[in-house]
Hints:
The chain is built from three helices and six strands. By secondary structure, it is an alpha+beta fold. The longest helix has about 110 residues, at about 1-115.
Amino acid sequence: MGSRYNQRDQKRKVNKIYNIAITVVSILIVIVAVSIFLSDDGSDTEKATTEPKQTDQKKKVDKPAGKEEDTDLTKEDEEEDSKATEEGTEENTEDGTDTDTDTDTDADTTDADTNPDTDTDKAEDAERVEVEGSGDGNVATTYTSESWKPVGTEQSGKHTTSFQKNSVDWNEMSKAIAHGAGIDQGNMRLWWLQNGGSSNTAIGTVSEGDNPKTFRVYIEWVDGSGWKPVKVEELKTNDKK
C-alpha cells in the first residue's frame, strides 16, 4: 500500500510540474506575441510620423528657392512693364503731331459731310449761266447750267411722254424739274406740268413748300438716260397758282 501511495504522489507532483511548465510557456508565448505586435505598431507609427516631418522639411527647404524665383520673375516683370511704359510714352509723343493733323482733317471732313447739299448748291450756283429771256414780263431771270445731267430712267425701249400723274414718266419728269430748280423733290410743289412743244420736251412750274419763289423749268428727254433740265426761269409771281 505504501508503494502505491508513493507512486501516486510522484505522478501528482509530475503533473503539477507539467501544468506549471505549460502555464509558463503559454504566458511566455502571450508575452512574446504582445511584444511583437506592439513593436510593429510602434515602428509603423514612427514611420508615419517621420514621413510628414521629412515632407515638411522638404517644403521648408524648397520655399526659399520658390521665393527667390518669384522675386526674380517679379523684378523681370517690373523691368518689362517699365520699358513698355517708356516705349508707349515715346510713341504717344511721336504720334502727337499726327493726331492733331488727323483731328484737323476729320474736322474738315465733318464740315464737308455735314452740308453736302449746301456745297452742291453753291457749285451749281457758280455754274449757272444767265441767258437772254423769252421776253415774258413775268420772268425775273433766266439761266442754264452745264452741270445739269439726265436723272436716269427705269424705262426701256421707245419712249412715250406720259402726263398721267404718278406714272413712271411723270415721276421722272418731276425729279428732273426738281433738279433744275434746285429744290428737294420731297418738298417740291408741282403747280403745272405741260408739253414743251414736242414729244420729248416738257415744262413744269414749281415752288418749294410755302416759299413764294416760283420756277418754270424746261426739260428734255435723252434716250437711255432719262429727263434732263435745260433751262430755268425764275418767275416774279406764280402764274399757275
